Amino acid sequence: MAIVKLDKVTRSFGAKQVLGGVSLQIEKGEIFGLLGPSGAGKTTLVNILTGQLSCGGTAEIFGMNCGRIGREVYRRTGAVLDNCGLYERLTCMDNMKLFACIHHISAARIAEVLREVGLNGSERLRVRSLSKGMRQRLQLARAILHAPELLFLDEPTSGLDPATAEEIHALMRRLRENGTTLFLTTHNMDEAYRLCDRIALLHEGQIVEEGQPAAICRRHCSDSELHIVTSDGEDLSLPSLPQNAEVVAALMREGKLRAIHSAEPDLGTVFLRLTGKELTQ
Amino acid sequence: MTTAFALLRKQIKDSLCNFQALMVMLIYPLVAFVMITALGSEDGMSGMFVTMFATMHASFAPLVTASNILSEEKEKGTLRALIMTGVSRQQYLISESLFVVSVTLLTGSAFLAMDVFTRDRAAAVAAAMLCGAVLSTLAGLCVGILSRNVSAANGMAVPIGLVTALLPMLARFNESLDRAARYLYSGQISRVLDSGKLSGEFAAVMAVYTVLLAALLAILFRKKGLE
Predict the structure, then answer these.
(1) Fewer Cβ in 10 A, N or C end of chain B?
(2) A207 lies in the same domain as A254
(3) ipTM
(4) Residue B34 CB: number of other CB atoms within 10 A?
(5) A46 near A154, Cβ under 8 Å?
(6) What CA–CA distance (Å, rounded) separates B201 from B28?
(7) Domain endpoint, select from A195, A217, A239
(8) What is the pTM of this model?
(9) In terms of domains, do A199 and A232 share one?
(10) Does residue A190 belong to any structural domain of this protein?
(11) Taking CB atoms and an 8 Å cutoff, what residues of chain B touch A74?
């Protein structure tokens, strides 16, 4: 069941068109990744979906037009957005208590969520004294406090160290296992590949490719090539042709085959091939 | 109701940790206290100073505080976070206004304790302070809506606040300014604090400013929203 539906969504800022007819659907319980370089329109799309920006075309969330979403839809969604800040002079607990009170949620749930994001023990710390990683975790804790069905994450691991990013990835996987649908925007292709069930590549306001990350990479595998590592440590690249089958078989017979890989491009390469631009630009 | 209470509690905690906000709310009662302590009660000047500072307090402090709260929430993105939990914009504005008016009256009650306003004048003084707090809060919210950040809000609120706060004081020394100050809500507040009596002119000026500022707030809110 699609809980997010976009049909020919457009959005302009003055004369500049940021989104030029984006259409996609997000199914319940999946992690959907929107990949694109800075300025591709990712944040604009999230702002449309969260009811902060109007748009042309049709944008629906839980069957409700995004231009008219209200309390009922907000109660079913959570968001970790760059422009959704925390009260810096207040403590972690005060920040959480405010939102718990708005959502009518018990103190026990606050403790549970803080533990889940690894912030137990930091309840009394003021937000201004927290590191970037801790702030991000607190934002995540705030976003999942009311157990939303759909969670928007705009560059959730941007600027974080790998260990913290990995912890956030683990939490995102746990959320998916519990049935939460995640909408993730990122320009980190590795993050998208490892985490997302489906992705869409956004370039200058247009979706240029959509599907499962591995399937996209296979689809754009123009060089049919095998990468072989022998037990001598030698790297071989062989065109995937019938006449090379004997080479591979011989290596196997001699016990010299240590590893064999196909040579699909990564998402960054796919993006480069499709748009002529680097994903991380 | 729970949301309004949560917003109010958040604002109280946040303001208690915000030295600048505390100073804006406390500075005029503190200065007035220092002045009357220095001058002594037998000097007729003390009454004038308390009236002046009470007028400044009612017209300046709520304006700057309301605009600062709103613009800071916009700048830091906390307002967006609140709205995305289902808090309505109107609910937010009402909660913050209640907070600003309540704190202005609470800190302003220090003027009543300074033994300058006699008991029979207290009701008129409190009514004038309440009117000043409400109108200045409305003006502060207009400034907050127009400003993207705290610096921009201060750049607009401080000059407006200074004009409304200082004109009644300067009017004491200049007849032309006194005529002009009659049409300013802070000028009318100053007159009520001086005389201890509410007049028809006071009611008329307050009504006109209430309508004007409420209409301006409604127009800005419809046109610009809160973000």
Answers:
(1) N
(2) no
(3) 0.86
(4) 12
(5) yes
(6) 26
(7) A217
(8) 0.85
(9) no
(10) yes
(11) 84-86
Q: Does some domain include residue A125?
A: no
CA distance B7 to chain A (A): 7
In a shared domain, residues A81 and A6 = yes
Same domain, A177 and A256: no
Lowest mean pLDDT among A40-54, A265-279, B206-220: A265-279
Range of the domain at A232: 222-263
What digits encode the pLDDT tens for the residues A214-265? 888 888 776 677 888 888 888 888 887 888 888 888 888 888 888 888 777 7
Which tens digits make up the pLDDT trace of A202-214? 888 888 889 998 8
- How confident is the model over B114-154, as pLDDT tens digits? 877 777 888 899 999 999 999 999 999 999 999 999 999 99
Query: Which among B103, B82, B104 has a CA at the least distance from the CA of B93?
Result: B82
Structural domains in chain A (count):
2
Q: Which residue out of B73, B85, B95, B226 would a mutagenesis test of the A interface target, given it has the greatest number of A Cβ atoms within 10 Å?
A: B85
- Span A122-134, mean pLDDT? 91
The answer to whether A89 contacts B85, with C-beta atoms less than 8 Å apart, is: no
Terminal alpha carbon distance of chain A: 34
Domain boundary among A197, A217, A237: A217
Residue A274 lies in a domain: no
Q: Is there a single domain that holds both residue A88 and residue A226?
A: no
Cβ contact B186:B55 at 8 Å: yes
Please name which of A271, A132, A142 lies closest in space to residue A200, comparing C-alpha atoms.
A271
pLDDT band at B42 (very low <50, low <70, confident <90, very high): low
A150 and A210 in a common domain: yes
| Interior/surface letters A229-249, b for 16+ CB within 10 angstroms, e for the rest | eeeeeeeeebeeeeeeeeebe
pLDDT value, residue A281: 56
Contact (CB<8Å) B78/A87: yes
A154 in the same domain as A88: yes
Same structural domain, A244 and A231: yes
CB-based contacts of A215, cutoff 8 Å, min separation 6: none
Q: What pLDDT shows up at residue A280?
A: 64
Please judge whether B10 and A94 are an interchain contact, meaning their C-beta atoms are less than 8 angstroms apart.
yes
* Top-confidence residue, A277 or A107: A107
